[in-house]
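Continuing from the previous page...

OK, I double-checked the sequence for Transcriptional regulator against my notes and this is the correct one:
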Amino acid sequence: ADIAKVMGFESNDEYNEIMFLREITHTVNAFNDMADIVRLYSKKPEMAEQRLENLLSEVLYEDSDSV
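Thanks. Re-ran it with the corrected sequence; updated structure tokens here:
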């Protein structure tokens, strides 16, 4: 069975585009989070460190879910 059709997409191209956008959105959001931390570091290093720890704990938690 064609996975795109089974999931309700009209074509494999549409399915591939949606899956790509899902992946790239996650990556772009992570880069934006890191950029915010870098900008914050010069003004409030302690707060930046805490945000970095929070971000890393989310990543580690997500990785442990996929095992």
